[in-house]
Amino acid sequence: MAKMQLLPKLYQKKVLDKINNDLVKGENKSPFVIELDPTTVCDLACPGCISGDLLNQKNPLDRGFSKDKMKEITDDIIKSGVTAVILIGGGEPLGHPTTIELIKRLGENGVQIGLTTNGTLMGRYIDIIAEYVSWTRVSMDVATDEMFRNLRPTKTGKSKFNLVVENMKELARKKRGILGYSFLIRTRADGLIENPAGSNIGLIEHTNVYEIYDAAKLSKEIGCDYFELKPSYDDFHQIVMHSEKDMQIASVQLEMSKKLEDQNFRVLESVMLESALKREKVGNQKKNYSNCRSAELRTLITPSGCYVCPYFRGENSKKIGDLRFETLSEMWNGKKRKNVMKKLDPSKDCHNLHCIRHDTNQEVEKIINLYENKKKIEERILPKKDYFI
């Protein structure tokens, strides 16, 4: 079983050049990676959705970018030299009517594209996704139609499990990139949280740890390149403490899943999974640095504003601009972003959350020090260029 590796990506020549030019020489004119929420609308109503309070906004301006604005954003991304874009949410990215046009144009212009999706709408766009998307990760969390209805229902309580599986099979047959099956551990410890639709459908009353192995087996049968098991987090980005029994079951299921691995299929361990399975009372992730280097290389763009990172999606104090009213370049080089970045201090602002890019921040600091001290940096050539740092 492998863990997600971000640090080797930093030593690719293009990334090192970006760090040197932008963070050492101060020529930071555009982000290297953008996470983009095209819309806040979603066709599912999953209990405990991490973006539940932001979904399906009543204000039309906050529900999604206009078609003209999406075209403008696409043009700005290409013109600014952004290297990679991750389509995420927020809502379901493929729910926006022009997302597929964005994928095609970015792909044609050499921008790497990652897609995080619930998989329900992929069938309409399989050929374009297969052609241009570097990786597609489908949020599943289950192995059966019944559990899908419990944990990933539509607003009327129905299940689209079989539709998603068929969409994934078709993409697996045609894809050039990587296809992943994402499984988020869900148990009653996550709480009885009402779903984003505001009804009583889909309260977290069911536990999915019994389906981990079957989900991994299904993902391999579908033709996925990997199965990823992830721990759940609370609203403060702390690991949810599941019961000892549930974590024992999950551990056994994971060990069984690892036996499915071969040269074409991997079982990935998400950040902090081991701690979750061991029920470790993980305290604050100490951040002994005052600059977030990741936020200087990446950003989050949503219909209601741009933010330093996904952990602060919707947080006004970490809002760095608004692409509804300005261009990408104006936002990135504007006074608002500079003021927010000047105040941003991970040792204080992020001490109570587990950041996936904590190690990245520390590694980038090392690289910056090497450049500043005129030390040689060993470049790395990955089997396939991967700029999703």
Low-confidence stretches: 193-202
- Give the H and E element order: EHEHHEHEHEHHEHEHEHHEEEHHHH
Structural class designation: alpha/beta
Tell me what the CATH architecture is. Answer: Alpha-Beta Barrel
How far do the termini sit from each other? 21 Å
CATH class wording? Alpha Beta
How would you sum up this structure in a few lines?
The chain is of the alpha/beta class and 389 residues long. The chain is built from 15 helices and 11 strands. It has helices at residues 13-24, 60-63, 67-80, 99-108, 126-132, 145-151, 161-174, 212-222, 244-258, 273-277, 293-297, 328-332, 335-343, 346-349, 358-372, and strands at residues 2-3, 33-36, 84-87, 112-117, 135-139, 178-184, 226-230, 266-269, 298-302, 305-307, 319-321.
Describe the structure.
With 389 residues, this protein is α/β, with parallel strands linked by helices. It has 15 helices and 11 strands. The chain has an 11-stranded mixed β-sheet.
Write the layout of secondary structure elements.
Elements: E1 2-3, H1 13-24, E2 33-36, H2 60-63, H3 67-80, E3 84-87, H4 99-108, E4 112-117, H5 126-132, E5 135-139, H6 145-151, H7 161-174, E6 178-184, H8 212-222, E7 226-230, H9 244-258, E8 266-269, H10 273-277, H11 293-297, E9 298-302, E10 305-307, E11 319-321, H12 328-332, H13 335-343, H14 346-349, H15 358-372
Helix pairs in contact: 1-15, 3-4, 4-5, 5-7, 8-9
